[in-house]
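Title: Comparing notes on inverse folding

I've been comparing how different people in this forum approach sequence design from structure. To keep things fair, I'm posting one structure and asking everyone to reply with a full sequence. Here's the target:
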């Protein structure tokens, strides 16, 4: 089981309890400007192959969190679709 599948399975009981209002808030989650700027910087350095070891770990953390939020947002979108 990969991380995305694990997140999906673990989050089932959480998203089962979402109201449409909560689901909408989750779907609308975005990184703030400072965080997005850092992600973009690390992504560029990753593409260039110039990340330090510390930056690799930081970038991996961002990717892991983004994966988790993406799964949560997809599940939240399903809640919204079911409420229509």
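Reply #1:
Here's my take.
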């Amino acid at each position: 089981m990969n991380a995305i599948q694990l997140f999906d399975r673990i989050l089932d009981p959480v998203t089962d309890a979402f109201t449409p209002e909560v689901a909408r808030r989750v779907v609308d989650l975005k990184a703030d400007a400072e965080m997005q700027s850092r992600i973009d910087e690390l992504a560029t350095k990753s593409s260039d192959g110039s990340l330090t070891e510390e930056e690799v770990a930081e970038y991996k953390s961002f990717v892991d969190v983004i994966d988790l939020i993406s799964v949560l947002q997809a599940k939240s979108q399903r809640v919204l679709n079911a409420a229509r």
